[in-house]
Amino acid sequence: MAARPAASPATGLDSLREPAEALLARYEQKRAAMLPVLRLVQERFGHISAQAEDWVGRLLEVAPSHVHEVVTFYTLYHQRPVGTYHVQVCTNIACALRGGQDQLKAIAGRLGIQPDQTSADGRYTLSTVECLCACEAAPVMQVNDRYVGPVSAEVIDCLVQRPEELPELGLVFRGAPGLVEPVLSKRFRVKDAESIETYVRDDGYQAARKAVTEMSPEAVIGEVTKANLRGLGGAGFPTGKKWGFIPKDSSKPKYLVVNADEGEPGTIKDRYLITKDPHRLLEGMIIAAYATGCRKAYIYIRGEYATPARILEQAVAEATRYGFLGQRIFNTSLALEVVVHRGAGAYICGEESALLESLEGKKGFPRLRPPYPATAGLFACPTVINNVETLACVPTIIQRGGGGFAKLGAGRSGGTRLFSLSGHVRQPGLYEASQGITLRQLLEAAGGVPEGRTLKAVVPGGLSAKILRAEEIDVQMDFDSLLAAGTMAGSAGVIVMDDTACMVEALWYAAKFFAHESCGQCSPCREGTGWVFKIIDRIRQGQGRPEDLENLLAIAGAMEGRTICVFADAAAWPIQSYIGKFRQEFEFHIREKRCDLRSGVRDRAAQARTEAAEAHA
Amino acid sequence: MPEQPKRVTLTIDGKAVTVPEGTTVLQACEQAGSPVPFYCYHPGLSIAGNCRICVVELTNSPKLQIACNTQVAEGMAVLTTSDKTLQGRKEVLEFLLINHPLDCPVCDQAGECWLQDYYMEHGLYDPKFNEQKVKKPKAIPVGPTVMLDAERCILCSRCVRFTDEITKTGEFGIFNRGDHSEVGLHPGKTLENNYAGNVVDICPVGALTDRDFRFKCRVWYLASADSVCPGCSRGCNIQIHSNREREWRPHIAKGQRVMRLKPRYNPEVNQWWMCDVGRYGYRFIDEERLERVRFRDNGSSRDAGWDEALAMIAEALTRARAEQRLGRVGAILSSHLTNEDLYAAKRFFGELGVTHVAFQRPKLGESDGFLLQADRSPNARGAQALKIAEGAEPILERAAKGQVDVLFVFTQDLVDLFGPRASEALAKVKLVIFIGTNWNPTAKLAHIALPSAVYAEKDGTFTNLNGRVQRLHAALAPWVDARPEWQILAALASRLALEPPGVDAHTVFAELAAREPAFRDLSYEMLADQGAQLAA
Question: What are the backbone angles phi and psi of residue A118, rounded to the nearest 5°?
Answer without folding.
Answer: -115, 140
